[in-house]
TrEMBL record:
InterPro entries: CheY-like_superfamily, OmpR/PhoB-type_DNA-bd, Sig_transdc_resp-reg_receiver, WalR-like, WH-like_DNA-bd_sf
CDD domains documented for this protein: trans_reg_C
Domain OmpR/PhoB-type: 125-220
Name of the featured protein: Response regulator transcription factor
Gene3D superfamilies: 3.40.50.2300, 6.10.250.690, Winged helix-like DNA-binding domain superfamily/Winged helix DNA-binding domain
PROSITE patterns (UniProt xref): OMPR_PHOB, RESPONSE_REGULATORY
């Protein structure tokens, strides 16, 4: 899942982003409304967490502009404006998909983001299957021949992407963009390490192959 967090309070933004990355979300940051709009036009985000009180262009205006797109991201407004009239205005007049007031519980934020991502038509099936592997997106669970498998959030996200590809190669760049985010050092071996651990946990080193110049794929 790729998320854009538009929040001008830099300490809060870094704290939220760190927590979401630990939940296997790729998180990019924007500190102004115009930057948030520009990034949404350039990148296909699943969810936009949008502060209403942004500099240069308000979150309200960003929301209005993005709603004119053919396929806008799901928008979760995150704001200190907690009056019922504020919530109704954000959800109806502005067209936000959800509204969460500050201060908030982080677990609730994660739950709301996951709920919004399930509403998008990009993931119509709850479970993916391949060679005895079952990946349940709704429950965030993986099993091999009925045996539960414990994966880290990043390992789950990598396997999810490979299974969605249905045997097609997934490039290193796509794995980085989708599972990690723009802050990942391009020189890191994070992708290779995650693939290596997945192979070991799945119990079949040959199940995930590396095609030179192509990327990684699941084999039969």
């Amino acid at each position: 899942m790729r998320v854009l967090l538009a929040e001008d309070h830099r300490v809060l933004a870094r704290t939220i982003a760190t927590g979401l990355r630990r939940q296997a979300m790729a998180v990019d940051l924007a500190v102004s409304g115009d930057e948030a709009e520009r990034m949404c036009l350039l990148t296909d985000y699943d969810v936009l967490i949008l502060d209403r009180d942004l500099p240069v262009m308000t979150g309200d205006e960003v929301c209005r502009r993005l709603r004119e797109l053919i396929d806008p991201p799901r928008i979760l407004m995150l704001t200190a404006a907690d009056e019922i009239t504020d919530k109704v205005y954000g959800l109806t007049a502005l067209g936000a998909d959800d509204y969460l007031t500050k201060p908030f519980d982080f677990a609730e934020l994660v739950a709301r983001i996951r709920t919004l991502s399930r509403r998008t038509p990009k993931s119509p099936r709850a479970a993916l299957r391949h060679e005895g592997i079952t990946l349940d997106r709704a429950r965030h669970e993986v099993s091999v021949d009925g045996r539960p498998l414990e994966l880290t959030p990043k390992e789950f996200a990598v396997l999810h992407l490979l299974m969605e590809a249905r045997g097609a190669a997934v490039s290193h760049g796509e794995l980085v963009r989708t599972v990690w985010d723009e802050n990942l050092d391009p020189r890191t071996n994070a992708v290779r390490v995650a693939i290596s651990r997945l192979r070991r946990k799945l119990g079949d080193p040959g199940l995930i192959t590396a095609d030179k110049g192509q990327g990684y794929r699941l084999c039969d």
